[in-house]
Amino acid sequence: MPYDRPVIKVEPPGPRAREVMRRHHELVMTSTHDPENLPLVIERGEGVWLVDVDGNVYLDFASAISVNNLGYPTHPEVARVAIEQLSVLAHAAGTDFYNPYQVSLAELLTSMAPGDFGKKVFFSNSGTEANEAAIKIARYSTNRKYFISFIGAFHGRTMGSVSLTASKPVHKKRFYMTMPGVIHVPYPNPYRNPWGIDGYEHPGELVNRVLDFIDYWVFEHQVPADEVAAIFFEPIQGEGGYVVPPRNFFAELKKLADRHGILLADDEVQMGLGRAGKMLAIEHFGIAPDIVTLAKALGAGVASLGATVFRKDLDPEPGAHSNTFGGHALAAAVAMKNIEVIRSLLPHVAELEKLFLERLAELKERYRTIGDVRGLGLAWGVEFVKDRRTKEHDAKTRNRVIYEALRRGLVLLGCGKSAVRLIPPLIIAEEQAKIGLDIFEEAVKAAHA
Ligand SMILES: Cc1ncc(COP(=O)(O)O)c(C=O)c1O
Question: Which CATH architecture has domain 78-341?
Fold first, then answer.
């Protein structure tokens, strides 16, 4: 170290990697690992580089699914704070007693979430828990039963949040019944939607169709609008394919929600904290949601931390919801420094956004199997199709691209039915980003061969 390019000494998985994978599959619950997962056994990391157990060095375009936004192993400023905090206080029953660290983080998060109104925070350990809390806050405060969420959404896998999730049937297979009362509606996906509208050319028409769907097909046929507690959404769908909706969508959705007293719950678990070029992705869309959920990058890869930021007047009574680890002092201290570092990186992310937009648009021109390229900040999705006219998904080519990239030392992850996400750590230098984009093109070429 330090590295300036990937080094592949042995085709992954090498012998040591195969042995760890064999033992893993013997000992760790099968459901966590998809057969399509990459055979990547990580031993250590430095900056944007990952080293596997066989000594291969990879450039990371996956950021551990947008957790390691500041790279590896731990950003030095965050590590310093973590070590200092460890010598003072780590866990101290933050939901039974008090500590100043969680109060400071709550102050920071409530000022970060948009909206000129009072806010409070519930701390948890993960994205799904942050959303469970949001579900309970919405039900408790409105005393309403139903929820609306979007097809393609991923909000987690516990029984409440999985009922909002609608990205893959396997998430629900044999788990019936999950939380009843969730209605799924189409997401305003500009590339692929039930009406065949080109949402890049006609964003207004797409937005109107989705809103009409809710107004007419849901409120006039399925459930009364005044019994809907909240609409959950991702500002950019992550697991569903890195789908960016038209810019006016959430403002129009808010008008609809306000007409019926319905809360808006914004799931920023994957897109929040700089990933999409703003502290919160919803800032691109200019609305103030009633509830915002965060996790993944919040703990900087050091602490498992989730947060539900909500309008103060929705606050449930004592005992209605709590947990053990919420308000963990180490997690809170780490998150505060992490947020400060991420904020300082936003201008850098804006610069790199241009590079990604330009290079990926060129690739779309060059390779016919690329049907769509979309993204903001350092959150990019490239969707592969068999035929641009029919838009038939091409998962085989997508999977091949991911594997060909790995063989060349670039770590990528899939999303949606046939898309690849390109989500490097926000600290990536322009030169490193160019190396990654070059390897991505080589992998696309190889997948076509
Ligand atoms: C948007 C979104 N919400 C919620 C979750 C669930 O988070 P966790 O896996 O921490 O429970 C995820 C995880 O990928 C996510 O992407």
Answer: 3-Layer(aba) Sandwich (3.40)
